Amino acid sequence: MTWGDQPAGPAPPISGGEKMPRSIRDTSIAIGFVQVPVSVYKAAQDEKLDLKSLCDTCGEAPHQRIVCESPTCGTELPQPEDAQAAVKAGQTLIEGPNGTPVAARTFQSWYHVPGRGYEWSHGEYVQISKQEIEDAKASAQRYDAITVSKTVDFKKVAVEHVLGEPYYLLPPEKANEATLKAYRLVTEALDQGGMALLSYLTMRDKTHRYAIVADQSRNVLMAYEVRDARALPYAAKAVEISPAEKKQAAGILQGQWSDEAHIDAAPDPLLALLERKVAEVQRLPGVGATVIVPQ
User: Fold this and answer.
1) How far apart are the C-alpha atoms of 136 and 203, rounded to whole Å?
2) Dihedral sign computed on CA atoms, order 83, 84, 87, 89
3) 95 and 165 share a domain?
4) Does some domain include residue 14?
5) Are residues 150 and 223 in the same domain?
6) What pairs with residue 66 in β-bridges?
7) 55 and 118: one domain?
8) Are residues 151 and 89 in the same domain?
9) Is residue 122 one of the residues assigned to a domain?
């Protein structure tokens, strides 16, 4: 069974004549035997200011060509014509273990120069000096304490913003009874009311916004970093549904209900491979022993 089998019509363009963002992937939400087709888009605004190193003379973003001198890393060229073609292409040849020329592996690497710049358009940079960066940071308002701005409905926060980077907010380990009581009062009030505290806190010279929520069962406050949500790439068309369809959907969702709000992380094959390799090395005889190399 599939809800929404019929694809929607062409999406309206985003205001301002901007191009429609591409979906990360097209997939579906699988709820038991029901499949709900969806397209995945990035929801959070990128607040990171990506500064690049710039040449202090020409203002360009320079790079250097690194040549790996290990012959086992390059490509062996047994035929003379292959070596000649590699030289014409600007590749660096080094001698292989059997005297055969090897086209060395090369790659580009950014190197540090005094200037910094922000790429506001492709290949176009605005230069920023180190002093300008320091002055801008010094002028920003700092919040040494978690400063609460307002109390709001947590569900509305989760819909309005994008939440990430969770932190535990715990009372000091040797807190007195008054502190513990105040902590417990705030925890219970937030949890029972389904509320969140929208707050500011400066960490590492940058002020972040946080939504503080509570889990009364564990007597813990948690702060989620709040980021602005991107504009919707297009509006989902609303359709009418019957009471019977509502009841059916509610029954399907209720069938997935669990009191335990936990889901295991998906297994990472690369991490498992690294763990196996480390385990193999640890079992090798002599690993970790001092080796004396004859001079």
Assistant:
1) 16
2) negative
3) no
4) yes
5) yes
6) 107
7) yes
8) no
9) yes
Residue at a domain's end among 205, 228, 251 = 228
Taking each continuous run of H as one helix and of E as one strand, the counts in the chain are 6, 15
Mean pLDDT by 10 residues, the chain (295 residues): 43 47 78 78 65 52 65 83 85 82 72 54 66 77 85 90 89 91 93 93 84 92 90 89 92 86 81 79 57 46
Separation CA 213–CA 75 (nearest Å): 57
Domain-located, residue 209: yes
Residues in the chain: 295
Stretch (H or E) spanning 246: helix 243-254
Q: Residue 3: which residues within 8 A CB-CB, separation 6 or more? A: 34, 35, 36, 249
Domain-terminating residue out of 110, 136, 162: 136
pLDDT digits (tens, 9 = 90+) for 67-124: 777 877 788 888 888 888 888 888 888 888 778 888 888 765 544 444 556 665 666 6
Across the strands, what pairs with 210?
Answer: 199, 225
The domain of 202 spans 141-228
Neighbour order of strands in the sheet with 124-128: 51-54, 115-121, 124-128
Q: Which helix (H) or strand (E) holds 80?
A: helix 80-88
> Residues 117, 152: one domain?
no
Q: Could you tell me which residues come within 8 angstroms of residue 98 by beta carbon, excluding any fewer than 6 positions away?
A: none
Q: Judging by beta carbons within 10 Å of its beta carbon (0-12, 13-18, 19+), is residue 224 exposed, middle or buried?
A: buried
Query: How many structural domains are present in the chain?
Result: 3
Asked, for residue 169, whether it belongs to a domain, the answer is yes
